[in-house]
Amino acid sequence: GLALFFSAMVRGMISLVTPITALVSASVPAIVGMVRGEALTQAQLGGMILALVAVTIISRPLGSDAAGESRPAGDGRRQRAGSRPVLGLSVMAGLGFAGFFLAMDNAELAGGDLWWPIVAARTIGSVLVLAALLFVRTIPRAPLPVVPFLLIAALGDAGGIIFFNVAIASGPLSLAAVLSSMYPVATVLLAWTVLHERLGRGHLLAVVLALVGVVLIAL
Asked: I want to staple 25 with a disulfide (CB 3.0 to 4.6 A). Which of 69, 97, 108, 173 is the partner?
């Protein structure tokens, strides 16, 4: 999920990738809960409909410029905001995150307590990354100024997993997964203010619908 998520952000616009990934990762646990017999509220159903509308809009090359595209400022190498490869990567990343949420919940229910699922997730993740580096036969060296940001990212990721496990140990999975999927609010704001990403009206509408959808699913 993380590998696909980062790949999507590199190829597309962060302010579009994150809401779609979050919607998928929020919707799948809600659907699983419905299959298990949990009733969905009208707000949650409305959120899922908005999710589908947002995905449909983002999958189309809408934009404010003459070519009908929205581009991140200063980065002509990125694909069109609504390109299907970027959309596919975002959806697959969301499915990966949703699978992680479900697996961690099942591990906790099976008696894994709080810490063993976290240890397993971090250990196996590290082994997979090292295996991938050996497969591509190149281990990139991070420039020294980047190292503090890498450490902050690692601490944030580990802290997120710990708090998520505390949440599922204290309440229902569907609520914890959906609330955890509201991170795009901060990510989109950072993409706009720090990276100066600019969206056309169609994609801006899609982002708003996606964020509203996540909130409704959380109600």
From this structure: 97
Residue pLDDT, tens place only, 60-98: 554 443 334 444 444 444 544 456 788 889 999 999 988
pTM of this structure: 0.69
Q: Are 169 and 34 in contact (CB under 8 A)?
A: no
Instruction: Give tens-digit pLDDT for 174-214.
Output: 677 767 776 776 777 777 788 887 767 777 787 788 778 87
Give how far Cα 101 sits from Cα of 15, 95, 217, Å.
23, 10, 16
CA atoms within 13 A on the CB side of 171: 10
The tokens describing 17, both together, are: 């990738």
Distance (Å, whole) CA 77 – CA 164: 35
Beta bridge partners of 191: none
Both structure tokens of 65? 């410029």
In angstroms, the first-to-last Cα distance of the chain is: 25
State the DSSP string of 50-118: HHHHHHHHHTS---SSTTS---BTT-TTSPPTT-HHHHHHHHHHHHHHHHHHHHHHHHIIIIITTHHHH
